[in-house]
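Worked example

This section walks through a single chain of length 204. The input is the sequence exactly as stored; nothing has been trimmed or padded.
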Amino acid sequence: MSSSVKGLDQRLQDILLRPEFLEMRGVAKEVPIFIQTYNPADDDELRRVVDGTEQVLRQQGIRVKHVDLFELVMELLDAKGYLDVVLEEERDWSKSDLFDTLQNVAEPTSALVPKLMEALGDDSQVSLITGSGRVYPFLRTHTILEALQPAMVRHPVVIFFPGEYKQDADGGSYLRLFGTSTASKIENPHYRATNLDYFGSQNP
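Given that input, the structure is written out below as tokens.
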């Protein structure tokens, strides 16, 4: 197994099964969103790790939801009648027209985030979100995070991001996709995602 996900399955299970994690202890003033980074080269392995973690959580009686952002966008395209058109005519479209169509259909505030919250449901204890790399560049993780409001998220949500997540001394948060030279700064002042590596090391 590649280095960025080696041992991740066991660590995820250890953290996600903790009562303090599921009950969001210690994050009362923050949005209960956690970011788990990994190398995009390990995407296939990461999906297997997440699927296995989901199965273990269910076996332990945990109500868990797994949402793939790419599949969610496909559902939005289908619901709005664009999916067949895109599949049939994609080769004839310019990249800019395709990009604009996908970006408009999956606009975070008015379309994607409401669909995402519907998919996560109200009775989940923890949610796992994958597919961040598959929807890049027409949909960027930081725009989804900025569109989420604290009151929306009522249980821990783990977003798997193929890159780096860092915070600087002034409290700014940055997401950088591996292989890119620039980082996307999260501008929403209400957003305080927690690096899952940090949570694990501070809550043994």
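What to look for: The chain has a mean pLDDT of 81.
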